[in-house]
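step=predict obj=TrkA domain protein n=163
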Amino acid sequence: MGVRIEKIDLPGIGVRHDVVTSSGRHIGVLSYRSGERELAVYDKADPDAIVASVPLNGDEAAALSDLLGHAALLSQLSGLGGAVGLFTEHIQLPSDSRYLDRPLGDTKARTKTGVSIVAILRGDHVIASPTPLEILHEDDLIVAVGTRQGLDALDKLLVHSQV
């Protein structure tokens, strides 16, 4: 079943986009003419009555969008895992990694392990498709896609400084 998205123009105010979940819940984003945004959850019995809302500035809206987009992509990739031998994994960069405060490219991760690093999660910030110039920091969460053997090799490379 496809995802249902509804667009509702709010004359003089802005626009409302709702996602209607498979359980019939409406979750919406109100985009005001001022540029402000609000994430809203609507009453199941009355899809025009807001039961909870969170105001978002532009950066927060973009971060939430990135997070939801990447979570959906990673979920889809994880779902492929068993069928095609691809897996996703999160690897935390420890404080004693030899790659700490060095560019991602210094790891030569793809060449050494065959694994793709698709994102770096740094606090509440998502760095999607990091370039080889991205500097690695303590406690970065590396999001990688590859074979089980490749991901094990990446863990040894980043965490245990082997390979």
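step=describe
Residues 4-56 form one domain.
step=end
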